[in-house]
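# step 3/5: fold
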Amino acid sequence: MDILFQQFFNLDIMSKALPLILEGLKTTLLICLVVIPLGILGGILVAVGSMAKSAVARRALALAVDLMRALPPLVLLILIYSGLPFLGLRLSPLAAVSIAFFLNNAAYYGEVIRAGIESVPNGQWEAARSTGLRADQTFVWVVLPQALRNVLPDLISNTVEVVKLTSLASVVSLQEMLYSADMARSLTFNNSPVVLAAIIYFVMLWPVVRIVSRLENASAK
């Protein structure tokens, strides 16, 4: 048992690795600050595009969304980071991660938001238009807020997945939190830094998970 604690819960090694892991945490939060807002904005655009009058446009968009959802984010990240240089475009690790995660999450956010828009009764559209609002104003000020509220638990759940997804950035040597913890592990030959990173992830995400559970329970009543 003592060997187990020394290998996974060594407080001395954790304290020494903490500054390095906190530096990685800054990068993790930076990725989230870039990817989450862009993903939600992209999701709104995808949801709006799914309502296009052109059947060809809708099918093309549906195909693109299916492709982004079917491709593992890790594969998408490697393709963008390693493939684009062959086309003469070399991206920084942060840019490659941001683009890959944006494409992946915009597809998921888009499906969630589309479901939210479809949940808003047609009467809301008609009532807003009867007050003199244009179609775009009706969507932005009346329909979209209701749609986002209706699917809020799903949006938050997807956001939690985005935070966990940032750990994949280590593949392109972007020094996010897991990458930093793994560096400390390789230097100390001890798994305690990785456990410390896991604890930080838990502390960040557990309150959000509890909020999602409460929202889901409230909507089920």
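# step 4/5: annotate
The chain has a mean pLDDT of 90.
# step 5/5: archive (pending)
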